[in-house]
Amino acid sequence: MALLLRRTSPLPGFHAGLAISLGALGLIVMLPLAALLGRGVAMGPEALIGHLAQPRVIAALWLSFRAAIGAAAVSGLLGLILAWVLVRYRFPGRRLLDAAMDLPFALPTAVAGIALTALYAPTGAFGRVLEPLGLRIAYAEAGIWLALVFVGLPFVVRSLQPVIADLDPGQEEASATLGASRLRTLRHVVLPVLTPALTTGMALALARGAGEYGSVIFIAGNLPNLTEIAPLLIVIRLEEYDYDAAAAIGLAMLAIAFVLLLAINAAQSWSRRRTGHA
């Protein structure tokens, strides 16, 4: 009788699956991170701080994360609007636009960087129009933001689309029937439901942008202390066979990204508890 009442999982093999998952996680993710941390420990705190205290390193780290955070915010706003339009409206070319959202995933980042540079360089199709207006995109920080929005926008759109598709329009209609304005309906009915998915998409865009390399180096100009990003500086240090300096910058990027993502996850958990979408 006890055997008949025993509950079984519809997906057997839990222990084997858990062992494989933890093994793959350890070999693919944790082992390289442990090697990087071990390199930092071997250097010692004085050498580590010495490598990171250089003005060029500080400027590169500040630029990388400033641009990544700003681009994630822009991607969040544009992604929310674009995902809403793709789900809620029907218009000619909608399927083509929806399919184009996946291109940054498949397109090599170097190709994206070359294409953006060709368009926004002073002699490019857009650059020759913007340059006389005092708007310099290529070889400036604005170009870095543009490249990071290009690679980060699909994360936000794809995170929001299924949530918007499941959102009941009847709730918005009921809110309007009760006299709420469109802005009030957006703030109190729509956004609380979309906030967790929006936060997830922006976190993915931030994580992608902080370590982005290929699409940025072509459009940034790579001027030290001005438009040089941290991933490029790591490559430069590796080419100079200064492995300790490269590891120090990598550790700094790892620590900053971990703190930012931890803060985003905490904010996301708070938002889910507040809205009741656990």
> What is the CATH H-level superfamily?
MetI-like
Q: Domains counted in the coordinates: how many?
A: 1
Count helical runs. 14
CATH structural architecture:
Orthogonal Bundle
Distance between the termini: 36 Å
Share in β-strands: under 5%
The backbone outline, from C-alpha atoms, is: globular
Q: Structural class of the helices, strands and pairings? A: mainly alpha
Radius of gyration based on Cα positions: 23 Å
| Run of helices and strands | HHHHHHHHHHHHHH
Classify the fold: give the CATH topology: MetI-like fold
Task: Summarize the amount of helix as a percent range.
Answer: over 70%
- Average per-residue pLDDT, rounded, comes to 86
Largest sheet: none
CATH C-level class: Mainly Alpha
Q: Please tally the β strands and state the result.
A: 0
Unreliable spans are: 1-5
Membrane topology: Multi-pass membrane protein
Protein name: Sulfate transport system permease protein CysT
Transmembrane segments: 12-37, 57-87, 99-121, 133-157, 189-207, 245-264
Family: Belongs to the binding-protein-dependent transport system permease family. CysTW subfamily.
